[in-house]
């Protein structure tokens, strides 16, 4: 059962607002509805009276859009916001009534599609001054691919290299087309095949792609999906000679288009679909739904989504990305568009829209509203094995386990010459001696060299051990051929009672 109710069903659902003059046309999505939808009708009498003034969110679009499944799903969720009431304007009202008679609203979700009177919606917005979720003036631009590309370019968003061929009888100077077998030249800009030819009207989906002779020539003619087809091959190799077009370079993708759907500047859902430019056969699953591939947007692409949403002033905005040559290029901006068949998107979208509306209008309606914190937004998701918390991210601070070995050697020395060093550099005061100066290190090296020579003849085990240590000391000190900088030092520690049993590893040389 749906929580959507029409005012003509009013006997048992008593709408809280009677808005506009054509009640039979206007639909209400009740506010303050209980989450249990059956209760809404059964316990209506017992419900607490709603707050005095609700925020009315008007939906003004063609019926095909305002009654679509995604719209219904999202509005059902949106009207669960305590202070929001949704009013769907009927198509008959929109088309036939003067805007003065349209239901009033505080926030307007309105968008153009085929047959929609955008001029009237603009006039209504001027009259009623609602908060606009999607700007209406910008929707004129969205209908013209030239304007869309101009805006994208102004925003510094990557798009395919393109040129506009205007066939305007009043401005013949703008129409300079030179056609070769394997290229076109549009106002001086050369496009070798493959290139793409798009009608300037964004509503016209007859996009043609021309193949080079090396690939057999001809063209692929795209059109609005009809059943299982989205394009057809044509042997025609020459471009259209009537109408105005955009010509652009063909971007070599992996054969998929990335469809992006924003809900405000900080949220974008993306999914990939097979490009209609391939063979024109639409991939469908057993339920007949077009197959979609999951997509993770890169940080750059998320920035593009934000820029598109902001530049076109469309909170809810769909656009197409072509991933090619290591970049992403925007090739189409469609304006208002919802993702189909994604519960997660319906939930997210309604929540974000509700928050945007409350944040914008809550204060002037004196509604005690605080922006929900992330902690309140517990990510519980339904799964096949019940509901559970969704893992949103894993944060780790990781360091490699390699350590540079301590470049230290330790040895025990007993020879009087070492004690002479102790004497000479006043080591007995503290029992420790640190030798860093080149001449001091040279002295230690001289002692090591002398002792190595002296011990040379012996073959006693213990002496052998001491000899190898002395040789090590000698070679460390001989390293680099001279003493300079701070790369070596010698530390001596006086041990009057001999070597302690558990000496720390890090101790210096011992005497
Ligand atoms: N420059 C390009 N390089 C490669 N392929 C392209 C290019 N431009 C468009 N296409 C392909 O053609 C398809 C249709 O192009 P585009 O999206 O511009 O037209 P549209 O009819 O407005 O689409 P929509 O149905 O999304 O409104 C794209 O989805 C993409 O697969
Ligand atoms: Mg497109």
From TrEMBL:
It is an enzyme of class 2 (transferase). Bifunctional inositol kinase that acts in concert with the IP6K kinases IP6K1, IP6K2 and IP6K3 to synthesize the diphosphate group-containing inositol pyrophosphates diphosphoinositol pentakisphosphate, PP-InsP5, and bis-diphosphoinositol tetrakisphosphate, (PP)2-InsP4. PP-InsP5 and (PP)2-InsP4, also respectively called InsP7 and InsP8, regulate a variety of cellular processes, including apoptosis, vesicle trafficking, cytoskeletal dynamics, exocytosis, insulin signaling and neutrophil activation. One of its GO terms (molecular function) is inositol hexakisphosphate kinase activity. This is Inositol hexakisphosphate and diphosphoinositol-pentakisphosphate kinase. It comes from Malurus cyaneus samueli. The keyword Cell membrane applies. The lineage of its organism: Eukaryota, Metazoa, Chordata, Craniata, Vertebrata. It catalyses: 1D-myo-inositol hexakisphosphate + ATP = 1-diphospho-1D-myo-inositol 2,3,4,5,6-pentakisphosphate + ADP; 5-diphospho-1D-myo-inositol 1,2,3,4,6-pentakisphosphate + ATP + H(+) = 1,5-bis(diphospho)-1D-myo-inositol 2,3,4,6-tetrakisphosphate + ADP. Its main location: membrane. Its EC number is 2.7.4.24. It comes from the Eukaryota. Residues 1-15 have a biased composition (Polar residues). Belongs to the histidine acid phosphatase family. VIP1 subfamily. It is found in: Cell membrane; Cytoplasm, Cytosol. One of its GO terms (biological process) is inositol metabolic process. PANTHER family: DIPHOSPHOINOSITOL PENTAKISPHOSPHATE KINASE (PTHR12750), INOSITOL HEXAKISPHOSPHATE AND DIPHOSPHOINOSITOL-PENTAKISPHOSPHATE KINASE 1 (PTHR12750:SF11). Residues 38-49 have a biased composition (Acidic residues). Residues 55-144 form the VIP1 N-terminal domain. One of its GO terms (cellular component) is plasma membrane. InterPro entries: Acid_Pase_AS, His_Pase_clade-2, His_Pase_VIP1, His_PPase_superfam, VIP1_N. Residues 1-51 are annotated as: Disordered. Keywords: ATP-binding, Cell membrane, Cytoplasm, Kinase, Membrane, Nucleotide-binding, Phosphoprotein, Transferase.
């Amino acid at each position: 059962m749906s929580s959507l109710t029409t005012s003509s069903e009013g006997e048992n659902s008593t709408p809280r607002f009677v808005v506009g003059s054509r009640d039979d046309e206007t639909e209400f999505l009740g506010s303050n509805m209980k989450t249990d939808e059956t209760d809404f009708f059964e316990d209506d009498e017992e419900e607490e009276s709603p707050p005095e003034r609700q925020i009315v969110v008007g939906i003004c679009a063609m019926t095909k859009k305002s009654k679509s499944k995604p719209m219904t799903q999202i509005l059902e969720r949106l009207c669960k916001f305590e202070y929001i009431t949704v009013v769907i304007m009927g198509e008959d009202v929109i088309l036939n009534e003067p805007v003065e008679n349209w239901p009033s609203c505080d926030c307007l979700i309105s968008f153009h599609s085929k047959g929609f009177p955008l001029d009237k919606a603009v006039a209504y917005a001027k009259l009623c001054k609602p908060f606009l979720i999607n700007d209406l003036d910008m929707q004129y631009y969205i209908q013209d691919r030239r304007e869309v590309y101009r805006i994208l370019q102004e925003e510094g968003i990557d798009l395919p290299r393109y040129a506009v061929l205007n066939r305007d009888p009043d401005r013949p100077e703008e129409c300079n087309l030179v056609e070769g077998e394997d290229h076109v030249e549009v106002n001086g800009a050369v496009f070798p095949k493959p290139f793409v030819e798009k009608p300037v009207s964004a509503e016209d989906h007859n996009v043609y792609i021309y193949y080079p002779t090396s690939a057999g020539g001809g063209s692929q003619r795209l059109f609005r999906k009809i059943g299982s087809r989205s394009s057809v091959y044509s042997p025609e190799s020459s471009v259209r000679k009537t109408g105005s077009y955009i010509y652009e370079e063909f971007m070599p993708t992996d054969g998929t288009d990335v469809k992006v759907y924003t809900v405000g500047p900080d949220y974008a859902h993306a999914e990939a679909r097979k490009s209609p430019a391939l063979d024109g056969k639409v991939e469908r699953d057993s339920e007949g739904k077009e197959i979609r591939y999951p997509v993770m947007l890169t940080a750059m692409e998320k920035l593009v989504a934000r820029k598109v949403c902001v530049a076109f002033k469309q909170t809810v905005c769909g656009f197409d990305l072509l991933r090619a040559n290591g970049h992403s290029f925007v090739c189409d901006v469609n304006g208002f568009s919802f993702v189909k068949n994604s519960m997660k998107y319906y939930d997210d979208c309604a929540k974000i829209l509700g928050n945007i509306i409350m944040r914008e209008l809550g204060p002037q309606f004196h509604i005690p509203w605080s922006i929900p914190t992330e902690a309140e937004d517990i990510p519980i998701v339904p799964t096949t094995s019940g509901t559970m918390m969704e893992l949103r991210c894993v944060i780790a601070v990781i360091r490699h386990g390699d350590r540079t070995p301590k470049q230290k050697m330790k040895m025990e020395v007993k020879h009087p010459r070492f004690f002479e060093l102790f004497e000479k550099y006043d080591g007995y005061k503290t029992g420790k001696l640190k030798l860093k100066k080149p001449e001091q290190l040279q002295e230690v090296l001289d002692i090591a060299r002398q002792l190595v020579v002296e011990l040379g003849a012996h073959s006693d085990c213990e002496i052998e051990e001491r000899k190898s240590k002395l040789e090590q000391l000698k070679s460390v000190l001989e390293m680099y051929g001279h003493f300079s900088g701070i790369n070596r030092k010698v530390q001596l520690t006086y041990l009057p009672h001999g070597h302690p049993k558990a000496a720390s590893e890090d101790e210096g040389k011992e005497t």
